[in-house]
Description:
With 459 residues, this protein is an alpha/beta fold. The chain has helices spanning 16-23, 42-49, 62-71, 105-113, 151-157, 202-209, 220-228, 236-243, 251-260, 264-273, 291-300, 320-333, 339-344, 400-406; strands at 32-36, 54-59, 76-79, 90-96, 116-127, 136-140, 145-149, 161-168, 179-186, 190-194, 217-219, 280-283, 304-307, 350-359, 362-370, 380-384, 387-391, 395-397, 414-420, 434-440, 443-445, 450-451. It is elongated.
Amino acid sequence: xxxxxxxxxxxxxxxxxxxxxxxxxxxxxxxxxxxxxxxxxxxxxxxxxxxxxxxxxxxxxxxxxxxxxxxxxxxxxxxxxxxxxxxxxxxxxxxxxxxxxxxxxxxxxxxxxxxxxxxxxxxxxxxxxxxxxxxxxxxxxxxxxxxxxxxxxxxxxxxxxxxxxxxxxxxxxxxxxxxxxxxxxxxxxxxxxxxxxxxxxxxxxxxxxxxxxxxxxxxxxxxxxxxxxxxxxxxxxxxxxxxxxxxxxxxxxxxxxxxxxxxxxxxxxxxxxxxxxxxxxxxxxxxxxxxxxxxxxxxxxxxxxxxxxxxxxxxxxxxxxxxxxxxxxxxxxxxxxxxxxxxxxxxxxxxxxxxxxxxxxxxxxxxxxxxxxxxxxxxxxxxxxxxxxxxxxxxxxxxxxxxxxxxxxxxxxxxxxxxxxxxxxxxxxxxxxxxxxxxxxxxxxxxxxxxxxxxxxxx
Length: 459
């Protein structure tokens, strides 16, 4: 039989090294490789040389397979045709210079591609007839007649895959048509990610680009709103965390807390339950430090994550905490009484608890308090069953009623915060157990706050 592949010790009819370069095989270290129609195993040897975990070749010629085994004893070779392919999955499969021998070329492409791993690639080399029609064209060769596809036909054959034309391959003597190389991959459904912070126009973009074109849009805000209000089943831990101190105006803070508590995987599962089986768009804020985690989870679920980046037009929208801090600074700047004069008017520290509510496993406390200078204390401390919890992050609220009643220079003396309260199911469970103080360095100072009339029964 005529020598086909070329080696240093055997010149063949094929410019095999040049073809290797034209095929643009991917990195194969640690991967499984299969060559369908391997001849004497040149490309299997190359895969092994590159560090492939396993390199397998099949060919119907006993002679060629015998030579391949002698040349590359570290590879595995089988005398068989493509009617019975080795068990996959394979990360890289090569089908070169052989497609035109198949009785059903389209079926062969699908059969070979079915052996690919989810991230695998089929390197396909075949002759292409120049024509605008989608068809297989009978072409006279030197020894026989064979059918070759046109480029429109190849687009039809490959439409279910993610594929790319890599360019022309190396011509052989007597080739009736030019050879071309295609890289063919299993097509993953797209997960188009709109993950920017509030104020970037995510909803408008998702509606105009995706929903208007029939692509499902999964909204984090809508899902968490329904979960937090008990209107949608969800992972119990996710549902409890979403309900904690829930507000539709602070969903970005809720999302931040969910990821910080390790509930990102549960949130991804919630998205996927509503994504369908095809392409979808995910519209909802994800903090930057967790976005790679989201993309890995979506990829592991079979999707191809595609992240959209853009800058909003118009002035920047500050985050809620930044905006609150700016507003409070502006409000304080409007105080007519100079800071040093206000500081000289010392008052008796005081505080009230006006409202208590439960949110999941957390107690939400709202009220007002002043320090000796008539301003809101910098910290609070909560004593629950003798255990003291420092509160350094809280929402400052305007209380003009307190300002008028006490003649204060500022009305920014209201507070609102939430603390964990394991085992508390109703407000009655707090009776006689809860105290709130102003604090310094996390330790209570002064007397505990009074309970206002609506909650006095819990004192």
